[in-house]
Amino acid sequence: MLLCNAAYAAAQAGDRQRCAELLDDADAAARLLGADRNHHWTAFGPTNVTLHRISAAFALGDAGTAIALARTVNPAAIPVVERQARYWVDVARSYQQWDKSAKCYQALRIAERVAPDEVRNRPVVRTLTAGLLSAPAHSGMRGLREFAARVGAPA
Description:
mainly alpha, 0% strand
């Protein structure tokens, strides 16, 4: 998990090469483990490495890669509900970055179904939702205003 967290920090700093190296090292450790585990609440394993690859791709501005990686994940296989919600929020962020508002909103709604309190207390969800509210059209975003009220997004 330390390798995954360091990789995400490298991605946030724009260091694509270091991020890839760290994620590859984390992936090697996950393969040695052999399966997803939640020892000591780490939620570490191959799936979590992929989740960090998604987050890193988004942080590096590569929404297409983030979405492609997200499509390889079975969200039901993510062992911790908080990580499931984070997965869906990262998918939403990537769709927003890719200028696909309706898909962003769909991912946020799924995140809310998975972990309502987790989603309603994340500032990034409020920011994404405020952006959706200011989008020129709300096609495919039925119930957006009610969702915005639930997450406390400014109207």
